[in-house]
Write a structure and sequence with these properties.
Blueprint: E1 18-22, E2 33-37, E3 43-46, H1 51-60, H2 62-70, H3 78-97, E4 106-110, H4 116-124, E5 127-131, H5 135-143, E6 147-149, H6 152-158, E7 163-169, H7 178-186, E8 189-200, H8 205-208, H9 213-219, E9 226-227, H10 230-238, E10 244-249, H11 254-263, H12 278-291, E11 296-301
Parallel strand pairs: 4-5, 4-7, 5-6, 7-8
Antiparallel strand pairs: 1-2, 2-3, 3-9, 8-11, 10-11
């Protein structure tokens, strides 16, 4: 029998509002599972991993886990990730960033990985700084000429503490205390600055709409302390006392979804692009976002 938390770690709702969402955690221990709070809608790992465990995991094992889990060669080496992940992610990120970015802006990315986002912003004329736990990926970014620190503490010690834009992509779900993390990031914002970040959406259509068991066994994994819905992300951001907006996003295409349904395996992006037109793919993604079943959320804090 699964052990339940005595209170929600996000909103503080009591034990009666906590229920088991998923019993099996990919890469987790037998006693770990995901709980969901019926009060704020957040989903969280319980019992959680410790900060010490997380630091060791992200410094030494995260990229290997990602490569094994997804079968995606983008995680094989930093230079491969820079090219392949950059080609996939930048077309999604840049339309949002271009609304706010101007030449001469100082930009900080927390969890900057191989530096592909910062490198793109540097081309626009921004002064870019990264924070990356993985020594291998941080060193690769430094070789590209990107100032990259191993932690926010190291960044602060450098005296570089004011930025017009603070970014983090798929980081918040990995931290033990999301409110404290966001508050720390906000300390680096210059007056009038913005923070932009993305997180997975717990209403991903493969789990929340199509309910594919093989996807559940893949999706709910120990690296994520949290899975947010629009409601639970609103709860978290409301605690900061800042203005914010949250938008839906859909990364994975119709081909990927069909591939999961047919094979129960990851992959399949663009597999049926010779059949589905770009208009069909765009319409499918827009329908997912409009329905509330989408695979990520974009937050903008000012």
């Amino acid at each position: 029998m699964a052990i339940l938390a005595s209170a929600c770690p996000l909103c503080g709702a009591g034990a009666r509002q906590q229920q088991v969402k998923i019993k099996i955690v990919y890469g987790g221990t037998p006693e770990q599972h995901f709980l969901q709070c019926s009060s704020c809608d957040v989903i969280y790992l319980f019992p959680a991993t410790t900060d010490v465990d997380d630091k060791r995991f992200y410094e030494h094992d995260f990229d290997k886990w990602m490569a094994k889990r997804s079968g995606d060669e983008s995680w094989a080496k930093p230079e491969v990730q820079f090219d392949k992940l950059g080609a996939r992610e930048l077309p999604l990120r840049m339309p949002w960033l271009q609304k706010f970015v101007r030449p001469g802006m100082r930009v900080l990315e927390v969890g900057s990985s191989s530096g592909f986002t910062l490198a793109a912003l540097r081309q626009i004329g921004c002064e870019c700084v990264g924070v990356e736990l993985s020594p291998e990926y941080a060193e690769y970014a430094r070789r590209l000429g990107l100032d990259t620190y191993s932690s926010l503490q190291e960044l602060e010690a450098s005296g570089s503490t004011q930025f017009d834009l603070v970014l983090h992509y798929y980081v918040l779900e990995h931290v033990n205390k999301p409110r404290a993390f966001l508050e720390e990031c906000l300390r680096y914002l210059a007056p009038g600055g913005r923070m932009i970040f993305e997180v997975p959406c717990a209403k991903d259509p493969l789990t929340a709409l199509y309910k594919i068991p093989a996807f559940d066994a893949f999706y709910w994994w120990r690296a994520h302390h949290w899975y947010f819905t629009p409601d639970s992300l609103d709860t978290l951001l409301s605690q900061l006392g800042c203005e914010f907006e949250v938008y839906p996003g859909q990364r994975y295409d119709l081909s990927n979804h069909l591939h999961w349904m047919l094979t129960g395996q990851p992959g399949g992006m663009g597999k049926y692009s010779h059949i589905f037109s770009q208009d069909t793919e765009r319409s499918y993604a827009e329908d997912m976002k409009r329905s509330g079943f989408c695979d990520y959320l974009i937050a903008i804090i000012s």
